[in-house]
Amino acid sequence: MASGRTLLNEIVHGGPQRIWLWNLEEPEDELARRIQAAALHHAMSAGDIGDRLFVNAGPDNALLAASGTMAGYVHEEVFSDLEREIQKRGIDVFVIDPFVSSHALDENDNVQIDRVVKRWSRLAQATNCAVHIIHHTRKSDQTIGSESARGAKALVDAARMVRVLNVATAEEISALGLQPDVRAFNARRDKQNLSAGHDVRSWFVVKSVSLENGPPADDVGVVVALSATAVVTTHLSPEAIQAIQNALDGKDRSYHQNAGDWAGIDIAPILKLNPEDKADRKLIRHTLGELLKRDLLVRVSIKHSRAGRDRNVVRVGLLALPPQSPDPSVEDGGGVES
């Protein structure tokens, strides 16, 4: 975000942003190594960042925003100081990592957690600054979702958007065409208020980068995005496939990519791909092919309404999710008055 460059397949809207990262776990030298390794991998210099990255880290940079021992739980002086500094520096995004180290509350108490999270929300509104809270999850062998967040549910409930990270399974690593010892994970938006959003996973690997500061040189892990073409359709969630089916249902869009009503155009927004881009178009075509192989979509030959000849269209096949049962509390023949 500070560079404004598309480093992880994510567009930085509005150009370079001013970022304040407050890490409450790692010492300063460790965080400096991570930032430098990322800069080396992406061939960035200090000029690419300018004065847009502010970093606090280590035990000398504690941030205690709330405590269970004080009335109202929230340390208003801390928030007042933060508001003043955020406005003074023109910060666009403030990152707290991790949330648990920023407070002394009972993390299982919904009232306490709700109080401090709502205070962060008010800070964001007052400063026109996004507040990004990094939070731990409970130990689990299952796929992580927003409901896996550790502690009180109030934290997730108050968040405008929740993104979850999951380590890749051996099967997923194989499907992605990666070596078995590669460290890979995916990120997906599990909760997104005020936006439709679809469950499309973004995939990443951790690459070892030498700081060339030896001997011996430090090797530091850097997150690298996998190219879109490396991610196969098997990683689309049932919800994302259902969104694709809904987008095509009843429209008889053309199977052929050169047609003006190609089915790929309809599903491109769900996949976050651009049908005008050559590489993206290839992935859209691949996605349609995979869904056809799995009978989630079917190709049907019908008469062209104007030309009179046969044309191949795409229709919905096996449903990705079972149809919703009608609400048993609503009687047949009943109505809703508004």
User: What is Rg?
Assistant: 24 Å
- Please, what is the CATH homologous superfamily of the largest domain? P-loop containing nucleotide triphosphate hydrolases
Distance between the termini: 46 Å
Unreliable stretches, pLDDT < 50, 5 or more residues?
Answer: 325-338
Number of domains: 2
How would you classify the helix and strand content by structural class?
alpha/beta
**Amount of beta strand:** 15-25%
- Helical stretch count? 9
Number of strands: 13
Please give the largest β-sheet: 4 strands, parallel
Structure commentary:
Helix 3 packs parallel to helix 4. By secondary structure, the chain is α/β, with parallel strands linked by helices. Mean pLDDT is 87; it is low at 325-338. 22% of the residues are buried. 29% of the residues lie in helices and 21% in strands. It has a four-stranded parallel beta sheet with strand order 2-1-4-6, with helices on one face. The protein has a four-stranded antiparallel beta sheet with strand order 7-8-9-10. It has a three-stranded antiparallel beta sheet with strand order 11-13-12. It has two domains: 19-226, Rossmann fold (3-Layer(aba) Sandwich), CATH 3.40.50; 238-316, Arc Repressor Mutant, subunit A, CATH 1.10.10.
